[in-house]
Amino acid sequence: MRPLTDQETKVFFEKLAKYIGQNIKYLIDREDEKYCFRLHNDRVYYVSQRLLKAAGPIGRKQLMSIGVCFGKFSKTGKFRLQITALDYIARYSTRRIWIKPTVEQSFLYGNHVLKSGLAKITDDTDSLSGVVIYNMSELPLGFGLSAKSTEECRSGTSGDIVAFNQADVGAYLRDEDTLL
User: Fold this and answer.
1) What's the burial of 180, exposed, middle or buried (CB within 10 Å: 0-12/13-18/19+)?
2) Is residue 163 within 8 Å of residue 146, measured between CB atoms?
3) Which of 5, 86, 97, 148 could be stapled to 152 by a disulfide with Cβ–Cβ 3.0 to 4.6 Å?
4) Could you give the CA distance from residue 99 to residue 69 in angstroms, rounded to a whole number?
5) CA–CA gap between residue 90 and residue 163 (Å, rounded)
6) Architecture of domain 95-174
7) Edge-to-edge strand order for the sheet containing 35-40?
8) CATH code 2.30.30.60 for 2-85
9) What is the rounded distance in angstroms from the CA atom of residue 29 to the CA atom of residue 148?
10) Cα(73)–Cα(76) distance, rounded to whole angstroms?
C-alpha cells in the first residue's frame, strides 16, 4: 500500500470532482480523524490514518483491502469509480437526479435513466456532468453522467436518455459470480 503519485492523484481527483466538485476537501479535512487515499493493487482506498498505522505490519501480499474502495485504475491509467464509493459521493454530491418508483428496477438492472422516468433534477446540471441518482425516498441508487442539461431535459421527448448509468447498487447482484 502506497500513496498515490502526482499523476494518479490528478486523474483520481479529476474524476471525483465530476461528482462532488469542491467538496473533495471535506473528505480529506475531517474533524473526527485524519483520512487519506492509498493505492493497493491498482485500487484507491479511503482509509483513516489510525487504521493505516494498524495495518502497517501486514505484508502487501496478505493485505486484501483496507478502508473503502473508491475505484480502480485501468492498465491504461484511466480511473473508474466503483459503487463502494456511493455513500461518500452521495453525501457530498452537487448534482442529483431523482427517478420515479416505476423505473427504479430498470435502473438497478444497469439501464440508463430516460426522461419518462425522471422525477426531478437539480437546476444547475450541465450535459456530461456527474450526477447521483436517487429514488423518491432520498435513497442513493447509483451514479452516472447526465446526458442532457436541465434545460434540455425540460424540452426533450419521453424516450430521451437523461443520465448514463455508471454504477448502481444492483451491480452487487449482477457481478456476484465474478466476485467470488
Assistant:
1) exposed
2) yes
3) 148
4) 26
5) 16
6) Roll (2.30)
7) 2-3, 35-40, 43-48, 68-73, 79-81
8) no
9) 33
10) 8
The count of other CB atoms within 10 Å of the CB of residue 161 is 15
pLDDT per residue as tens digits for the range 22-33: 999 999 888 888
Domain residues of the chain, as ranges? 2-85, 95-174
Of the candidates 36, 147, 26, the one whose C-alpha atom is nearest the C-alpha of residue 91 is 26
* Summary mean pLDDT of the chain: 91
User: Which three three-digit cell numbers place residue 172?
Assistant: 452487487
CA distance 116 to 80: 28
In sequence order, which residues have a C-beta less than 8 Å from that of residue 126 and are 6 or more positions away? 146, 149
What is the per-residue pLDDT across 78-101, written as a single tens digit (0 to 9) for each?
A: 999 999 999 999 999 999 999 999
* Position 57, amino acid: P
